[in-house]
Amino acid sequence: MRFGIKQARWAWIGVLSLALVACDSPESLPDDGFIDVPGGRIAFRVIGGGPGVPLLVIHGGPGGSSCSYVSTLTGIAAQRPVIVYDQLGSGYSDRITDLESLAVLPRFVEEVTAIRNELGLDELHILGGSWGATVALEYVLTAAPTGVLSVTLAGPLIGTERWLADANLLVAQLSEESQRAIQAAVSSGDFSTAEFNAADREFASQFGRRRPRSAGDLIECSRRPEGNSGLYEYMWGPSEFISTGTLREYDRTDRLHELNLPVLFLVGEYDEARPETVREFQALVSGSLMTVIPDAGHGSSWDQPEAYNAAVNEFLAGVESR
Question: 251: buried, middle or exposed (CB in 10 Å: 19+, 13-18, 0-12)?
């Protein structure tokens, strides 16, 4: 691993100095840098500090980034170190040069192993959001890891077929104009029309991030390199409403019962990962908990950061007090 602390420091540092305390535990953790993984390097950052066991956060996508967590997870970062990173192909990490061999779920799982090994995370909690929850779930189910004290699955993608069924139910709540535009795009395969883009924005404002952005919000996201839309389309598809990518057949519903560690299902009241569906998933995991964040969509840490931080802090504190 090559940390490159001074040479490669992320543009977030100015924002962080206003929002977060310096990381003072554990002493061995650097504050940012790069980690070698199969296919390239991934960029990471450690925010906050405190006596709690570190929390590793896995962002959504595929092709998203961790930038929003810097300003939305400050409440959690006041209690413990929070490690955020950009998956290969995203944010400040290297781009994927061979989608067929590298844009596969097991390789993203390997990133978690690499981070733990390089940062010496013998004990940790894991939080995955959306597609990040898929990676977290797959890691726990397939890597047989030790030292994972808990996992939080926020707005999780557990199975593609169920996700698409829920998306269709939510589309039915949009304006008739948007419904027609989405139906036309799905039928024709053309997702580039102005009508579809408007419908997509309406869907996102209702079930994605419900709180509008204003000037100065998420400055760190505006400074990051462009994401990788090709990665999203290759693995998922052209939109939230249809999956044509490599995740089209993904489903781990039948393996949820294998989880034998503390699990929190976290979802927004208006999440596109519908609370009704997530409640069914939660019932399959013995002893698991579920929290619904009021007046929040899929981006619940953005819509209601105080409630989101409080829910995660309460869960992690409860795990550590056992």
Answer: middle
Pick the CATH number of 13-161+213-320 from 3.40.50.1820, 3.30.360.10, 3.40.50.150, 3.30.43.10: 3.40.50.1820
322 vs 320: CA distance, rounded Å = 5
Cβ contact 81:55 at 8 Å:
yes
**pLDDT band of 313, cuts 50, 70, 90:** very high
- Is the pLDDT at 56 greater than 90? The verdict is yes
Record the tokens describing residue 104, joined without a space. 């596969």
Using one digit for the tens of pLDDT, what is the confidence trace for 74-117? 999 999 999 999 999 999 999 998 999 999 999 999 999 999 99
Is there a cis peptide before residue 51, judged by omega within 30 degrees of 0?
Answer: no
Q: How far is CA 247 from the centre of its chain?
A: 16
d(CA 137, CA 157): 10
Closest CA to 89 of 223, 231, 221, 225: 231
Q: List residues with catalytic annotation.
A: 130, 271, 298
